[in-house]
Amino acid sequence: MEKGGNVRSSLIRLLWHRIEEDDLNGLSAQLAYFFLLSLFPLLIVLFTLLPYIPIPHQDVLGVIKGFAPVEAMDLIEKNVKYIMNHRNGGLLSFGIIGTIWSASNGINAVVRAFNKAYNAKENRSFIVARGVAILLTLGMIFVFLLAIILPVFGREIGVFLFSQVGFSDEFGKIWDTLSYLVSAIILFLIFTGLYWIAPNVKLRCRSAFPGAAFATVGWIVTSMGLRFYVENFSNFSLTYGSIGAIIVLMIWLYLSAFIIVLGGEINAFYSERSKKNC
Asked: What sign does the CA torsion over 267, 67, 142, 150 have?
């Protein structure tokens, strides 16, 4: 019991030290900027793929709407609709390649942040490093599509099965709870992939689990908390006027970046500790 307490206290002390030493506040602000640049290109790629998959557009935004603050969500919906309505060309166009490149900027910034957490130098070539970022971006898109497809078709299958035994109403209540669990599992898979593949360090998949678990719970709790605060205790539009929604979006992206980088620091801590014990 005492040993476990010592590990937790040393983890907290080291994390606090790393937050200051690695300047997590400044690093999170940089990541938030790159996330903002990557957000709309990433959504454009998703919406470009939707004609090939029988999923309504609102289901894509519905996944984000469950966590994003209302003002930020309104801004995202408005701009995505505008971009898609004025966009020409199909999936197999040169423009989509540039869009994927832009969408990978956020992941590329995450790679640099994780390398800093592990004190690892990026000795991969520019092409290889960017290729990893693009592959991770495509992987995120694939997992994101799964996160949309599973609830849509899962609900339809569940309603059909439960209606056969006369419990369709009960299934609706059960599914509302399960949908949050499915979202959490999808997030955990995304974070595990990021923490395992992104750093320029040889890692086992299971070594990414502590940070992935922290990031999953931390991101959900932080997003829900910010959403509750914005809806009930603050009106950014009164303070910032027409750019209030942008401020809310940037705060959400900043907090998300901070949680993700902190998860990387947790994994780096356990990685260093395991090496010392060997």
From this structure: positive
Q: What is the pTM of this model?
A: 0.79
Q: So where are the chain's domains? A: 2-277
Q: What is the pLDDT along the chain (278 residues), one digit of tens a residue?
A: 455 555 566 667 777 777 778 788 888 888 888 888 888 777 777 777 766 666 666 666 776 777 788 888 888 888 877 766 766 555 445 566 777 787 788 888 888 889 888 888 878 888 888 888 888 888 877 776 666 666 656 666 666 666 666 655 666 667 666 777 877 888 898 899 989 988 888 888 889 999 999 999 999 999 889 888 888 877 777 777 778 888 888 999 999 999 999 999 889 888 877 776 65
Which residues make Cβ contacts (< 8 Å) with residue 255, sequence separation at least 6? 28, 222, 223, 226
